[in-house]
Write a structure and sequence with these properties.
Shape: globular
CATH architecture: Orthogonal Bundle
Order of helices and strands: HEEEHHHHEEHHHHHHEEEHHHH
CATH superfamily: Cytochrome-c3 Hydrogenase, chain B
Structural class: alpha+beta
Largest sheet: 3 strands, antiparallel
Number of helices: 15
Helix content: 40-55%
């Protein structure tokens, strides 16, 4: 070994990334093996937020379990609830009996929730890189969305609004004018987001070409949603396997090719613009009428099983429910996109600088409440 090789040789060390670190977005922990500032190995450690929600479902009635869904991905409560109630409706064979107005309200709530979820991603990713100003901008519009949820459901983050057969209550007279105002301001807000962060040369230097993910690797890991579309996988359940009334809406599916941190960022911003398009159509076409189907007061699906999934803000989110004919699920399992997506971090982190791993992790947009369920 030469003197130069001896001088530059470093000793590998292990450090903890989390579980109590602001950039882990909860109680996630990864153990990095470092050679200098380069990561040579990454091992994920999950389970710090496990609450046994799947097992709790077996001792709750089908209706009683609805509020628990808001505690999964706690920035996407409406989407979680929508997936669950539609799974139960499919199990009961009443999916085609949901009133038209309730279907439109569900679409409105889900697309508002998709925007709110992506805003948390956008603001949090900027904050992880030291950008506090985008954090305040992102939560400005998210707060407006939560105001809309409060008008409809009475709650902001844990809505408990979806019901088996429809929704809990019709929209009050304040909701539609407030929605109209939000739709008017959101395109301008998106321009601001791009101006304050997307075009920033420091942001671009830290995201373009960082932690690229190929389409083949994404498929091998079962990655879905914005992360998969950023790698060139042109698939969105709302368009390709439409559920509810999504086949009535015209929108584009944002797809990128490089699969790097920047593309994962851009796909989500583009998706917010497409959600605004869907909301415009729902606002225009929503009919009058009831918001609940005639369902039994005690929900007892026939014995059988169902697996039902939707296009969540994080990817494919679904429920596998087994019924024994009683008023409680015999078994319930949650298909979580965050749990699937976080697995790629072990491979993604290898070879990155420590500071780049923080940004790459932020681009996965995970929520621990959905992983540790």
């Amino acid at each position: 070994m030469t003197l130069k090789q001896e001088l530059v040789r470093t000793q590998e060390m292990e450090i903890n990334f989390g579980p109590h670190h602001p950039s882990t977005h909860g109680v996630f922990r990864a153990v990095f093996t470092l050679d200098g500032e380069y990561i040579t190995k990454c091992v994920n450690h999950l389970g710090y937020l496990h609450r046994g929600i799947e097992k709790l479902a077996e001792s709750r009635t089908y209706t009683q379990f609805i509020p628990y869904n808001g505690r999964l991905d706690y920035v996407s409560g409406m989407l979680n609830e929508s997936a669950y109630v539609q799974a139960v409706e499919e199990l009961m064979g009443i999916a085609d009996q949901i009133p038209e107005r309730a279907q439109y309200i569900r679409v409105i709530m889900c697309e508002l929730q998709r925007i709110a979820s992506h805003l948390v991603f956008w603001a949090s990713m900027a904050l992880d890189m030291g950008g506090f100003t985008p954090w305040t901008y992102g939560f400005r519009e998210r707060d407006t969305v939560l105001d809309l949820f409060e008008m409809a459901a009475g709650n902001r983050m844990m809505p408990n609004y979806m019901r088996i057969g429809g929704v809990a209550a019709d929209l009050n007279e304040e909701f539609m004018p407030a929605l109209r105002k939000f739709l008017d301001i959101m395109p301008k807000a998106l321009e601001e987001y791009h101006g304050i962060l997307t075009g920033n040369e420091i942001f671009q230097a830290r995201t373009i070409g960082v932690a690229p993910l190929s389409a083949e690797t994404a498929l091998d890991y079962g990655i879905s949603g914005p992360i998969a579309r950023a790698s060139g996988i042109d698939y969105d359940m709302r368009r390709d396997e439409p559920y509810g009334i999504y086949d009535r809406f015209k929108f584009n599916v944002p797809v990128r090719k490089n699969g790097d941190t920047f593309d994962r960022y851009m796909v989500r911003l583009d998706e917010m613009a497409e959600s605004v398009k869907i909301l415009e159509q729902a606002y225009r076409d929503i009919p009058e009428g009831p918001v609940m189907a005639k369902v039994p007061k005690v929900i007892k699906p026939p014995a059988g099983e169902v697996f039902y999934r939707i296009e969540h803000s994080k990817g494919h989110f679904g429920f596998h429910i087994v019924s024994d004919g009683s008023n409680k699920p015999y078994r319930l399992r949650i298909y979580s996109p965050c749990f699937t997506n976080v697995a790629i971090f072990e491979e993604m982190a290898k070879g990155l600088h420590l500071q780049d791993a923080v940004v790459a992790f932020a681009s996965l947009d995970i929520i621990l409440g959905e992983i540790d369920r």
